[in-house]
Amino acid sequence: MTMQKVIKILGTGCPKCKAMTAVVKEAVADNNIDASITKVEDIMEIMKFNIMTTPALVIDDVVSIKGRVPSKKEVVDLLK
Protein backbone atom coordinates (compact mmCIF):
# COMPACT_ATOMS: atom_id res chain seq x y z
CA MET A 1 0.00 0.00 0.00
CA THR A 2 1.39 3.35 -0.99
CA MET A 3 1.13 6.45 1.12
CA GLN A 4 -0.87 9.38 -0.07
CA LYS A 5 1.25 12.02 -1.82
CA VAL A 6 0.95 15.54 -0.47
CA ILE A 7 1.03 17.99 -3.35
CA LYS A 8 1.19 21.74 -2.92
CA ILE A 9 0.96 24.18 -5.78
CA LEU A 10 2.56 27.47 -4.84
CA GLY A 11 1.33 30.49 -6.71
CA THR A 12 -0.64 33.66 -6.28
CA GLY A 13 -3.28 32.78 -8.85
CA CYS A 14 -1.54 33.85 -12.08
CA PRO A 15 -2.48 32.12 -15.37
CA LYS A 16 0.59 29.82 -15.12
CA CYS A 17 -0.41 28.86 -11.57
CA LYS A 18 -3.91 28.01 -12.75
CA ALA A 19 -2.49 26.00 -15.66
CA MET A 20 -0.21 24.04 -13.33
CA THR A 21 -3.13 23.30 -11.00
CA ALA A 22 -5.17 21.96 -13.94
CA VAL A 23 -2.28 19.78 -15.22
CA VAL A 24 -1.61 18.33 -11.76
CA LYS A 25 -5.30 17.59 -11.05
CA GLU A 26 -5.64 15.92 -14.45
CA ALA A 27 -2.47 13.83 -13.99
CA VAL A 28 -3.64 12.65 -10.56
CA ALA A 29 -7.17 11.85 -11.76
CA ASP A 30 -6.12 10.11 -15.00
CA ASN A 31 -3.65 7.86 -13.21
CA ASN A 32 -5.66 7.14 -10.04
CA ILE A 33 -2.87 8.55 -7.90
CA ASP A 34 -3.71 8.88 -4.22
CA ALA A 35 -2.83 12.49 -3.53
CA SER A 36 -4.08 15.55 -1.73
CA ILE A 37 -3.68 18.75 -3.73
CA THR A 38 -3.45 22.07 -1.92
CA LYS A 39 -3.21 25.45 -3.58
CA VAL A 40 -0.95 27.78 -1.58
CA GLU A 41 -1.60 31.43 -2.44
CA ASP A 42 -0.35 33.10 0.73
CA ILE A 43 2.92 34.84 -0.13
CA MET A 44 4.36 34.29 3.37
CA GLU A 45 3.64 30.58 3.09
CA ILE A 46 5.19 30.46 -0.40
CA MET A 47 8.32 32.21 0.85
CA LYS A 48 8.87 29.44 3.42
CA PHE A 49 9.82 27.21 0.47
CA ASN A 50 12.54 29.67 -0.51
CA ILE A 51 11.46 30.02 -4.13
CA MET A 52 11.56 33.20 -6.17
CA THR A 53 9.46 32.14 -9.15
CA THR A 54 5.96 30.71 -9.26
CA PRO A 55 4.26 28.50 -10.02
CA ALA A 56 6.05 25.84 -8.03
CA LEU A 57 5.13 22.22 -7.50
CA VAL A 58 5.90 20.76 -4.09
CA ILE A 59 5.56 17.01 -3.59
CA ASP A 60 5.87 15.70 -0.03
CA ASP A 61 7.53 18.99 1.01
CA VAL A 62 10.16 18.85 -1.75
CA VAL A 63 10.12 21.57 -4.41
CA SER A 64 10.04 19.56 -7.64
CA ILE A 65 9.35 22.17 -10.30
CA LYS A 66 9.45 25.94 -10.18
CA GLY A 67 8.81 28.79 -12.58
CA ARG A 68 7.09 26.78 -15.30
CA VAL A 69 4.11 24.59 -16.09
CA PRO A 70 5.07 20.89 -16.34
CA SER A 71 3.64 18.43 -18.81
CA LYS A 72 1.16 15.89 -17.50
CA LYS A 73 3.69 13.08 -18.12
CA GLU A 74 6.30 14.94 -16.08
CA VAL A 75 3.88 15.23 -13.15
CA VAL A 76 2.98 11.53 -13.34
CA ASP A 77 6.70 10.58 -13.41
CA LEU A 78 7.37 12.71 -10.33
CA LEU A 79 4.47 11.12 -8.45
CA LYS A 80 5.43 7.51 -9.17
From TrEMBL:
<dbReference type="Pfam" id="PF13192">
    <property type="entry name" value="Thioredoxin_3"/>
</dbReference>
<keyword id="KW-1015">Disulfide bond</keyword>
<protein>
    <submittedName>
        <fullName>Thioredoxin family protein</fullName>
    </submittedName>
</protein>
<feature type="domain" description="Thioredoxin-like fold">
    <location>
        <begin position="7"/>
        <end position="80"/>
    </location>
</feature>
<feature type="disulfide bond" description="Redox-active">
    <location>
        <begin position="14"/>
        <end position="17"/>
    </location>
</feature>
<keyword id="KW-0676">Redox-active center</keyword>
<feature type="active site" description="Nucleophile">
    <location>
        <position position="17"/>
    </location>
</feature>
<dbReference type="InterPro" id="IPR036249">
    <property type="entry name" value="Thioredoxin-like_sf"/>
</dbReference>
<dbReference type="InterPro" id="IPR012336">
    <property type="entry name" value="Thioredoxin-like_fold"/>
</dbReference>
<dbReference type="InterPro" id="IPR005243">
    <property type="entry name" value="THIRX-like_proc"/>
</dbReference>
<feature type="active site" description="Nucleophile">
    <location>
        <position position="14"/>
    </location>
</feature>
